[in-house]
Amino acid sequence: MPSQIAQTLPLDILREIFDHAAAAQPAGRNPSLDTYNLGWIIVTHVCQRWRYAGLSAASLWADAVCAFPDPTIADELITRARTCPLNLRHIFHDEKDTGARSYRRSPQLTLSWALRYRSRARHLQCYISMASIVRDEDAEVKILFADPLPIVEDTSIMVDDNLLDFTTRSLFIAQLNAPVLGSASLFGMLPAPTSTLPNLRTLRLYLDDIHATTIVDMADILNALRALPALESLNLRLNDAVESSVDGVSVRLEHLRFFQSLLRPMKQ
Fold first, then answer.
1. Which member of 54, 66, 156, 189 has the lowest number of beta carbons within 10 Å of its beta carbon?
2. Element (H, E) at 178
3. 35 pLDDT tier (thresholds 50, 70, 90)
4. pTM summary value
């Protein structure tokens, strides 16, 4: 495109270009090369007019705030996002001095950073080490599962059981206060029956890849499901170590349209 034409394009056309570029080339990590690239952001550097138009694309910045594992960069992108709801992804909470092996070598955005913006999070994806959960004084974990997530619409939470010991422990059950949450993928954990999830319609429970010493009781799963009246889709994955104790009380999911269950052997 000739530079003269590029510098005179209407702002709405520039915004459409940015939207297409962001969909085709998101900013962030390139898994195949293990590097980070600007992606669509580089398009905003064509000229001063394009930079001005790019800075006004608040929703695109809101989607890209976690593209790079540097809180200083992320804070700047949040400033550009203005008041738009945020996409908080690739959030990690590791342990310190708890006898667990390190499970992330590269720098990542931390849960303590993300919690500063939890009231603006529309999407939340985080990885939490079991070592931090079993440590009672872990403030970040307590805040995540106690304070409201008022506008989160979908979430993915993975509990990484990376402890070195072989202590038998119960499956992690946590209260989620997310009144507009519609979709959740939970790895190695269950929502507590006391959770505030009145609009949860899609639930994926991945309990098949947990530590061999973690106790999964079917009664806990059923109790969690009873507290989800709006559920329409359920994907449940278990291993053969699940305990089958039940209380005999039926589970009524009157809006359920899709159910898939997978049982696989415990890893040796």
1. 156
2. none
3. confident
4. 0.87
